[in-house]
Amino acid sequence: MFGFSDKGNLNLITQALEAVGCKMQVIPDPTTVHFHLPSNLSVRVHRQYGEFIAELTKNFPHEKEGILKFYNECWKIFNALNSLELKSLEEPIYLFGQFFQKPLECLTLAYYLPQNAGDIARKYIKDPQLLSFIDAECFIVSTVNALQTPMINASMVLCDRHFGGINYPVGGVGGIAKSLAKGLVENGSEILYKANVTSIILAQGKAVGVKLSDGREFFAKTIVSNATRWDTFGKLLKGEELPKEEVNFQKVYVKAPSFLSIHMGVKAEVLPPDTDCHHFVLENDWSRLEEPYGSIFLSIPTMLDASLAPEGRHILHIFTTSPIEDWKGLPLKDYEAKKELVADEIISRLEKKLFPGLKSSIVFKEVGTPKTHRRYLARDNGTYGPMPRRTPKGLLGMPFNTTAIHGLYCVGDSCFPGQGVIAVAFSGVMCAHRVAADIGLEKKSPVLDAALLRLLGWLRTLA
Ligand SMILES: NC(=O)c1ccc[n+]([C@@H]2O[C@H](COP(=O)([O-])OP(=O)(O)OC[C@H]3O[C@@H](n4cnc5c(N)ncnc54)[C@H](O)[C@@H]3O)[C@@H](O)[C@H]2O)c1
Ligand SMILES: CC(C)=CCC/C(C)=C/C=C/C(C)=C/C=C/C(C)=C/C=C/C=C(C)/C=C/C=C(C)/C=C/C=C(\C)CCC=C(C)C
């Protein structure tokens, strides 16, 4: 996980836990990811920036200068981001205050807001294989290539992994939600589980409550939806005319595919002792990077935290992009058979590329499809999140938290700045600040608000 460090301003998981009086013990991951790429290109992204750059330049000595220039430009943006107090960019008193206190940093971010990582990489790098490597660097966090990945998001992940680092919460990532929930309850909040919202209640065009599938209704001054914008406006507000803002959003962004996930328990001896925790595998053909089932993600959390599995066992979480269309309309028997077949192919590829004997070492296996994602996360088509339809203008087209419906706010990965736990946590921080201003807990200027919201709405139409 990003966001777990004890320094800077981007450690949003640490900050969220602290806000409710919790802290989790973490284990630093020495390697963010080990790439296994075409032409046997193997690159380990070491926690130490210098070691990573040394490994990359060893593979591409003729591009040393380009590599340094590209990643240095990322650091410029990361340092600007990391210097700001992160609050709502839709709240003018805060936004203008930041421009006043940190003009250079804010102008840097405003300059890069409409730009994408692939264009900047091409300014410095010519080697097509190295440009494909930058595509893979972006793909693992955005599910699209570098030319479609906003430069601000790319800089955040390409640098924070060396600044705050990647850290694993002891006991597993599920502990983050559990700690947060415990902290919230201890601070007086109430959380309803198994509460399936089927619609948002409107009164005179204003959002005033929610209705659950069991018929219960809840009313509030403010409604915040963490469902995707497609679900919020397509299902929870079904029958209402789609607001112009949302039509624009859907013009610029489509739903990214979902994932096929395989969770396995294996005998420990099948993995060499120095195996890294995270791997990304694309064997032969760069053109398959973005194709369904083309590339394989693999996490082995027991490499960092042995307590997660019984002694002598490791956990493998293997996943690859997969569209829901491949899994729709199949009779149960065919669905089960297809899961086995597709999983078997993926496991065979890993056996061939990384771990000989993998198949015979399996002691437990469970396969989830896009339908599993849809069911458990209630995400339309099980989507991983928004993906630009064409080349985007960086982050310019991403909507913030306020919506065209008075009293209704959106958070999550279909809001600015997009996918990723830190991105999603930032959208939560922004939303909390905007709501606090709107209900009178923070300073607010209605005149400036109206002007800024109009300006931001207009900027989005340029994307
Ligand atoms: N670091 C990693 O390895 C990793 C792995 C996977 C995902 N992620 C990130 O996590 C992010 C997901 O964040 P998010 O918060 O936007 O999405 P989310 O899908 O995780 O959260 C939405 C929550 O809302 C609930 N929900 C949806 N509709 C509902 C309804 N009608 N009624 C009640 N509850 C409902 C869902 O059950 C879910 O718990 C993604 O962007 C992704 O990048 C990171
Ligand atoms: C408003 C206007 C107009 C202007 C102004 C200017 C300014 C001031 C601006 C500002 C801006 C800002 C602040 C921004 C921010 C941003 C952020 C925070 C971002 C973030 C991001 C993040 C991200 C993207 C992340 C991501 C991550 C991810 C997705 C991850 C994932 C992972 C996975 C999947 C795993 C892997 C594994 C393997 C490889 C195995």
Bound molecules: nicotinamide-adenine-dinucleotide, lycopene
Level-2 CATH architecture of the largest domain: 3-Layer(bba) Sandwich
What structural class is derived from the secondary structure elements?
alpha+beta
Q: How many separate structural domains? A: 3
Note poorly predicted spans: none
Broad shape: globular
**Percentage of residues assigned to helices:** 40-55%
CATH classification, class level of the largest domain: Alpha Beta
User: If helices are DSSP runs of H or I spanning 4 or more residues, what is the number of helices?
Assistant: 15
Spatial extent as radius of gyration: 23 Å
Name the average pLDDT.
96
Largest sheet: 7 strands, mixed
Distance between the termini: 30 Å
Biggest sheet: strands side by side, in what order? 3-2-11-12-13-10-14
Strand content: 15-25%
The count of DSSP E runs of length 2 or more, i.e. the number of strands, is 16
Fill in the CATH topology of the largest domain.
FAD/NAD(P)-binding domain
